[in-house]
């Protein structure tokens, strides 16, 4: 078969459901085979940052591979930021970049889209991927692809595939099937025994679930384990939106001083905290009131399990949880644990809208019409989402780049068929909101909540005063129509409630609800977060 076909079959066999991309002359040959072969559907978008964010989100949402296909130089380097975000937020993103062919690379001319050297792009991607390959040899290509894709899956981090345009149609053998690296279940059982003994000795055991639980598709298994143990479960900020509709005794999301006192005390006062797949980042732990004493913590992450003074190497999270399920017995009574609380019952009146009112209106909408998966951008919209009842959430909670909100929402619908709710600030919408113009072509119809405070408000909260936080009023609602959707600007509770209901009643296109907010009007969660950051930075 053709090398490009072998690559696309390997991606599909390992769970990829679609490709997001923008072609270029170095990529046209493999894009043509992608379209002709129909192995995977192609969704083209308008700007490579959107391609990267969308492909990353598809992978996160399905706990499978997300695929971004671009051209050399101008395309691939335009996507560095989203790939970096996928790397640190542990997303299984596959970057395929077209590249110059062998002969043209040897002519001694500077090629268009080339930087310093032909391999400059490869070197740049070495820094933000866990594996990099160049498909320049028909004999070695199938095995190279298999090994790189297996690394992507096992590490849940991006990989880089450089595809010279003169290689796409060479005849090759099929790519070998997924071959997990050998895991030692005995080591996992020994580790599980010690973890459960650790929890058993603790007065206040607690489990924190992190992003790896979602990335490796372990939500059901973790729910089974924690339901048996009956001890409190929290999610990290990054992992908000997992364990939805499961029997896990979930008491909320840990946000340190920015979250509820109940959750904060349960985590920070625990003498037996088990962190499963949690990224030790400032956004997950930056506003802890009390440093978490890592001597009483067991931390399973990146295929290692760390105790205070020793570790178990190469114990994948899946094996640890399986081994714990084999020997788990009740340690507490889940029925006595407090469930998270959320705001409901927004009054339909002429009051101005505050961010928390948006969460309240969304919760009311979910009660009436059913929950929707959410894609949120960085900004107060993400902190507002913490007041929305637990539902699948794709958000840049660690690397914190602006821009993923709209592309990620489109990807949720492309990969799952579910109508998403997109939450995005006006600043972030200015960056990638225009990708909504691709909805009509693909029949996507997200409901978009655009928080328009005419401001980079998060920055103003950290640094009051300068005028450069002021954004102009772009009148976004009026732009929705020409882009193929419907837009409405809302200023009161009643207008917001009506706009949400109208969007629910009309699935013919995307609905852009431009929510006008006063500058300085921020969510309670963001307010607590910023105050905590200020207080902790002064205290040190
Ligand atoms: C690509 C990119 N550029 C810059 C930033 C810095 C930054 C923030 C983070 C802290 O680094 S929050 C923020 C303002 C966001 O404005 P908007 O989308 O309107 O949301 P809101 O008004 O709710 O703040 C910026 C510019 C970023 N995170 N990502
Ligand atoms: Mg704003």
From TrEMBL:
Cofactor: thiamine diphosphate; Mg(2+); a metal cation
Domain (Thiamine pyrophosphate enzyme TPP-binding): residue spans on this chain: 390-514
Cofactor note: Binds 1 Mg(2+) per subunit.
Binding site for Mg(2+): 426, 453
Thiamine pyrophosphate enzyme N-terminal TPP-binding domain ranges (all copies): 3-106
Transmembrane portions of the chain: none
One Gene Ontology molecular-function label: pyruvate decarboxylase activity
One GO BP annotation of this record: aromatic amino acid family catabolic process to alcohol via Ehrlich pathway
InterPro entries recorded: DHS-like_NAD/FAD-binding_dom, IPDC, PDC/IPDC-like, THDP-binding, Thiamin_PyroP_enz_cen_dom, Thiamin_PyroP_enz_TPP-bd_dom, TPP_enzyme_TPP-bd, TPP_PYR_PDC_IPDC-like
A cellular component term, taken from the record's GO annotations: cytosol
Keyword Cell wall biogenesis/degradation: no
Residue span(s) of domain Thiamine pyrophosphate enzyme central: 193-316
Family, similarity comment: Belongs to the TPP enzyme family.
Protein's name in the database: Indole-3-pyruvate decarboxylase
């Amino acid at each position: 078969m053709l090398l490009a076909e072998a690559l696309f079959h390997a991606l599909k066999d390992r769970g990829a459901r679609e490709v997001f991309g923008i072609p270029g002359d170095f990529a046209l040959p493999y894009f043509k085979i992608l379209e002709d072969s129909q192995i995977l559907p192609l969704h083209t978008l308008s700007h490579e940052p959107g391609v990267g964010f969308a492909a990353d989100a598809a992978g996160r949402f399905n706990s499978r591979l997300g695929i971004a296909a671009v051209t050399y130089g101008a395309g691939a380097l335009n996507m560095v930021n989203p790939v970096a975000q996928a790397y640190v937020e542990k997303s299984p993103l596959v970057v395929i970049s077209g590249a110059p062919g062998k002969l043209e690379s040897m002519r001694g001319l500077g090629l268009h889209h080339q930087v310093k050297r032909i391999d400059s792009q490869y070197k740049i991607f070495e820094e933000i991927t866990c594996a990099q390959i160049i498909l320049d040899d028909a004999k070695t290509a199938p095995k190279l692809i298999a090994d790189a894709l297996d690394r992507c899956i096992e590490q849940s981090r991006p990989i880089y595939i450089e595809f010279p345009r003169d290689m796409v149609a060479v005849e090759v053998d099929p790519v070998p099937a997924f071959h997990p690296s050998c895991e030692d279940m005995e080591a996992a059982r020994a580790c599980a025994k010690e973890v459960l003994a650790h929890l058993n000795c603790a007065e206040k055991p607690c489990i924190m679930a992190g992003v790896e639980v979602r990335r490796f598709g372990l939500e059901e298994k973790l729910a089974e384990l924690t339901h048996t143990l009956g001890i409190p479960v929290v999610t990290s900020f990054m992992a908000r939106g997992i364990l939805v509709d499961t029997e896990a005794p979930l008491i909320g999301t840990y946000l340190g001083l920015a979250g509820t006192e109940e959750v904060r005390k349960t985590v920070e006062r625990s003498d037996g905290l088990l962190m499963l797949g949690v990224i030790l980042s400032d956004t997950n732990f930056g506003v802890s009131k009390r440093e978490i004493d890592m001597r009483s913590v067991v931390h399973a992450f990146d295929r290692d399990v760390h105790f205070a003074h020793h570790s178990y190497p190469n114990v994948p999270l899946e094996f640890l949880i399986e081994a714990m399920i084999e020997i788990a017995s009740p340690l507490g009574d889940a029925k006595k644990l407090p469930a998270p609380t959320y705001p409901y019952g927004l009054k339909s009146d002429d009051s101005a809208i505050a961010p928390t009112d948006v969460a309240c209106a969304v919760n009311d909408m979910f009660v009436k019409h059913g929950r929707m998966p959410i894609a949120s951008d960085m900004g107060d919209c993400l902190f507002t989402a913490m007041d929305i009842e637990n539902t699948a959430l794709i958000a840049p909670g660690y690397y914190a780049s602006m821009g993923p909100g709209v592309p990620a929402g489109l990807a949720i619908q492309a990969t799952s068929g579910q109508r998403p709710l997109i939450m995005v600030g006006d600043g972030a919408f200015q960056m990638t909101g225009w990708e909504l113009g691709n909805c009509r072509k693909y029949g996507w119809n997200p409901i978009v909540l655009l928080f328009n405070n005419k401001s980079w408000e998060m920055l103003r909260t950290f640094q009051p005063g300068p005028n450069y936080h002021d954004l102009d009023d772009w009148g976004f609602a009026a732009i929705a129509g020409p882009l193929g959707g419907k837009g409405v600007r809302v200023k009161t509770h009643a207008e917001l409630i009506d706009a949400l209901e109208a969007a629910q009643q009309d699935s013919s296109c995307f609905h852009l609800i431009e929510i006008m907010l006063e500058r300085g009007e921020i969510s309670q969660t963001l307010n607590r977060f910023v105050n905590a950051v200020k207080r902790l930075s002064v205290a040190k």
